[in-house]
Specification:
alpha/beta; two-stranded antiparallel sheet; 5 helices
Length: 243
């Protein structure tokens, strides 16, 4: 994992920071959530990250002449928060290496904890997941209980059905359509890293309302409050708008 820091950000002490990692998953709801966090918390670009397994990507942020790349880190020093914006998919052959390298970087930076965000395929919910909130949370043993976790967000149900291959589960955690979330959770659990996964069951389509829901839940888990959420300028380009 190559990290290109901006304006001397590498010298910062990140040991007391929380890092938020959205995965490319169903409906891209995690990326939209990261957009809202970065814009609403007025975060600044601290670094651009690269990995051999990441598919090349470059785009327009909607701000002046700024370009967006596949993996960037944004920071809010007051709240001691670093948010990764993962826009690019990881090639299948590199997914295991990528997750290991990403967690190695998290360990090297000595973040207090890591929060992974993802969407999960609503069509693969179990019977007990059909009603009530569509948010779920899973924590590694090293993270343990999260005092700020709202009581309205239940723990992710453990799957024990015989019809699901244990290799797919990564133990007993099933996150259909969650991208690399399951791999990150399983590897972090094995390594003893404090990591939580916050997911929202959703489908493909316009997930802006779901992004707001996931963002509000994320802020609650981070024990942070905001008067309102602000959408980034790039959202004006959705569905070909403002073009």
């Amino acid at each position: 994992m190559e990290v290109y820091w901006r304006n001397g950000a590498e010298a910062e002490v990140l040991a007391e920071y929380t890092v938020v990692v959205p995965t490319v998953s169903v409906g891209h709801v995690a990326q939209l959530c990261a957009d809202l966090l970065v814009e609403s918390l007025e975060m600044t670009l601290a670094a651009v990250l690269d990995h051999p397994g990441m598919l090349p990507l470059v785009g327009y942020t909607g701000k002046d002449s700024e370009l967006a790349t596949g993996l960037e880190a944004y920071v809010n020093r007051e709240k001691k928060l670093l948010v990764l914006q993962c826009r690019s998919e990881v090639a299948k052959a590199y997914r295991d290496t990528y997750t290991s390298d990403l967690l190695a970087w998290v360990t090297k930076c000595k973040f207090t904890k890591c929060l992974v965000l993802c969407g999960a395929d609503a069509s693969q919910r179990s019977q007990s997941q059909l009603d009530g909130t569509q948010l779920r949370f899973a924590a590694t043993e090293a993270l343990g209980e999260v005092p700020s976790l709202p009581e309205t967000i239940p723990q992710l149900e453990r799957i024990t059905g015989q019809d699901i291959d244990p290799q797919v589960l990564g133990g007993d955690v099933f996150i259909p359509g969650g991208g690399l979330a399951r791999r990150l959770y399983s590897k972090a659990n094995e390594a003893g890293l404090p990591l939580g996964v916050l997911l929202l069951f959703t489908s493909q389509g316009n997930n802006i309302p779901q992004a707001h829901m996931l963002t509000e839940a994320t802020l609650a888990v981070l024990d942070t409050t905001l008067e309102r959420l602000k959408a980034p300028p790039s959202w004006r380009l959705l569905m070909g708008g403002a073009m």
